[in-house]
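Box 4.2: Ligand-aware structure prediction
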Amino acid sequence: MIGPARSDELDAICVVVQAAFGRRDESLLVRALIADGAAALSLVARDAAGRIEGHVLYSHLLATSEEGERVTAIALAPVSVLPERQGTGVGAALIAEGDTACAELGITLSVVLGDPAYYTRFGYEVEAARDLVCAYTGPHLMAKALGDAALPEGRVMLAYPAAFG
Ligand SMILES: CC(C)(COP(=O)(O)OP(=O)(O)OC[C@H]1O[C@@H](n2cnc3c(N)ncnc32)[C@H](O)[C@@H]1OP(=O)(O)O)[C@@H](O)C(=O)NCCC(=O)NCCS
C-alpha cells in the first residue's frame, strides 16, 4: 500500500534507502532534502504488516524558461525498494502514485536522472529533457509532463536543491 510518509518515519525510510542502494549517500540526500524543506512529496510503500518496504522522494526544482517564466517542476529522486522486495512492482507503484499526486499538486513537469530502460516505462523520455539545462543534462536525464500539462517550449533552466550538490 502506498501513502504519504509520516514525519516520525524518517529513520525507517533511511534504513530502506540505505539497504536499497547498499551505501549511505542516498539516505543522507533524503535527510538533507527533507531538512532543507526542499521535499515536495515523500511517499512510502508498506507491506501487509505495515512495515516500510519502499520510498520515493520528489523535490522542488527552480525551473525558469528563457523568457523568465517559472515552470512548476520537481525532481524524482531517489526511489528505493528493499533488496528482498525488488522486482515485485513496488517501485512502479511508488512512481505511478507519486507522479499522479504531483500532478494533483499542480506540478507540470517531473524530471529524473537514471536508467532510461526503467523510467521510460512510466512515460519519462530522454527526448523530453533535451531542452532542459542543468548539471545533469545528458543521456540519463529524462522528463515527463504531468497530468494534462504539455512540455514547456524552448530551453528551461533547472536549479536543483543544494543538497544534490
Ligand atoms: C530501481 C528500483 C527502485 C526499482 O524498483 P522495483 O520495485 O525493484 O522495480 P519494479 O518491480 O517496479 O520493476 C521491475 C523491473 O524493472 C527493472 N529494473 C529495476 N531496476 C532497473 C534499473 N536500474 N534499470 C533498468 N531496469 C530496472 C527490472 O529488471 C524489472 O524488469 P521486468 O519487469 O522486465 O522484470 C529498485 O530496484 C531499487 O531500489 N534499486 C536500488 C536503488 C536504485 O537503483 N534506485 C533507482 C535510482 S534513483
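In the box above, the bound molecule is coenzyme A. The first helix runs from residue 10 to 21.
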